[in-house]
Amino acid sequence: MLKPSEVNENIRYEALNYLMFLKRKRCGKIKARGCANGRPQREYIFKDESSSPTVSIYALMTSCLMDAIEGRKVATCDIPDAFLQADWPAERLLPQV
User: Fold this and answer.
1) How far is Cα 17 from Cα 37, in angstroms, rounded to an integer?
2) In a 10 Å sphere around its CB, with 0-12 CB exposed, 13-18 middle and 19+ buried, how is residue 40 labelled?
3) Distance (Å, rounded) from C-alpha 78 to C-alpha 52?
4) How big is the CA angle at 26 (ends 25 and 28), to the nearest 5 degrees?
5) How far apart are CA 31 and CA 61, in angstroms?
6) What residues does each domain of the chain span?
7) C-alpha neighbours within 13 Å on the C-beta side of residue 35
8) For 66, phi and psi rounded to 5 degrees?
9) Helix, strand, or coil here: 16?
10) Confidence of residue 94 (pLDDT cuts 50, 70, 90)
11) Is the dihedral of CA 35, 77, 45, 10 positive or negative?
12) What pLDDT was estimated at residue 56?
């Protein structure tokens, strides 16, 4: 997290808006869903820098075939923000003691 004194005009311009959608369920609980509005990125981030890496169909099918032949068990999962791309200050990479 940045301190308010560290935020300049350029950082504010490049910041992504976060869209939050709230819904009240029948049981009374509130459910929230959110996503980053990535449209403003198109002005200053090139396509190859902002796209998530994807596997080729050939590599995926080869891996599935090997798993099936060897009788492997396969599990998949989704890791939120795994491909979040942002510049992070170097001093924040090291744990602060």
Assistant:
1) 5
2) middle
3) 13
4) 70
5) 37
6) 4-74
7) 3
8) -65, -40
9) coil
10) low
11) positive
12) 85
The amino acid at residue 20 is M
CA-to-CA dists, residue 71 to 57, 60, 62, 65, 66, angstroms? 21, 16, 14, 10, 8
- Percent residues over pLDDT 70 in the chain: 66
Residue 68 pLDDT > 60, yes or no?
Answer: yes
**What is the rounded CA–CA span in Å between residue 83 and residue 47?**
14
Please say if the pLDDT value at position 39 is more than 90: no
Alpha carbon distance 12, 16 (integer Å): 9
Instruction: Return the closest-CA partner of residue 83 out of 39, 53, 43, 55.
Output: 53
Choice between 82 and 14, residue whose per-residue pLDDT is larger: 14
